[in-house]
Amino acid sequence: MLDKVKDTTPATLFSHVKPTDTPFKGDGLRDFFLYRDLGVAAATGGKVTAQLVIAHNAPEKGTGWHRHEAEFHIVIMLRGWARFMYEDQETLVSAGDCVHQRPGIVHYLFDYSPDMEYLEIVGPADFNTVDVPAPCEVPLSKGWGV
Predict the structure, then answer these.
(1) N or C: which end of the chain has fewer CB within 10 A?
(2) What is the pTM of this model?
(3) Could you give the domains of the chain?
(4) Signed CA dihedral, 21, 128, 143, 31: sign only
C-alpha cells in the first residue's frame, strides 16, 4: 500500500532572485571571470542552471580548448563582447547576441572586453567540462590595452 502513495513534491519551485540577493563570486569554472548564481539550479532540482558571468581580469590565455557535457547550453551577451573559436570558426559574440552551443561542440573563449557580461543557461546544472586537443590555431587576445 505504501508503494502506491504519490509524491506530491513539485518538480520545480518558484524562484525570484534580485540583484542584491546573490553577489558575484570568484568560485566558478574560470578564475578570470566572476559568477552570480540566479537560483535556477536550486529551483529546478539541478535540471538547469542560470548564472551571470562578468569579466574580472584581462584575457591572457583564455579558456583553452574544451567541450561541455551538457544537453543544453546558451549564452546571451548582455554587455560588451567576447571572441570564441567554435571548432575552426572565429565567432564574435556582441551585446544582444544569443549563442546555442550544441552538445559537445569544441570551443575556446580567447578574448573579451572589460565590460563583458553574459547570461549562461545550461542543463543539467552539474555539467562537466572536458579539456580537448586543439583542432586549430587560436588568434591572439588583444587584451584590454585595445
Answers:
(1) N
(2) 0.88
(3) 25-133 (2.60.120.10)
(4) positive
